[in-house]
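During the practical work, I selected for study one protein's amino acid sequence and its backbone structure tokens, as given directly below:
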Amino acid sequence: MSAVSTQPEDVRVLLVDDQDLFREGVRVIVDAQPGMRVVGTAADGLQAIAAAEATTPDVVLMDLRMPEMDGVEATRQLLAPERAARRERALRVVVLTTFDLDDRAAAAIRYGASGFLLKDTTPRQLAEAIRTVAAGNAVLAPQDLTRLLDRTFGAPTAPPASYLALTHKEREIFTAVARGLSNGEVAAAVHLSESTVKTHVGAVLRKLGLRDRVQIVVFAHEHGLLR
């Protein structure tokens, strides 16, 4: 496990993978990008948790299959509400996998990961994904996320009282976001300004206790709200 200093404006990246060669290759790619820097590395989930506490990254690139503690459990612990509440900086996780539509990737997303990347992604796609996630967005196309979640959810459960307490307009916007529409597309669909839609999305996230738009999609699938 290692750590280096970086400029405050940089996107701070933590690399977690049990293969030294892959980890160092990704480090070279990330460090070559303007505005981002690797601040630490870890070889398993236990090291990842310690490194995240020590280096305060913005984005964690998390391998799924590792010894000691796998990436799913590490993601669950890193993004647990009680741990997140103690952070001054928001933490996002992107899982890395060699398998498309990986069940472990779906589990990590349900625990709060912002999407997944295949390990054979290009350097450009990797850099774009890091920037996208750091900005609070998903790195998985809505249709791919839907297919992934459909494989892992069983019978939906009844929506909680927090969802039932949403206003009609908030539910309308919730559904549009859950179907993968951007703020601009939602604005056109519901005849509101984009800034008003953004305000409503923030209210939905706050009322449902969700982290980001990815979690809206997960919530909708978990409770069968798109059927």
About this structure: The two ends are 45 Å apart (CA to CA). Residues 170 and 199 are 10 Å apart (CA to CA). The chain has a mean pLDDT of 86. Residues 194-208 form the longest helix (15 residues).
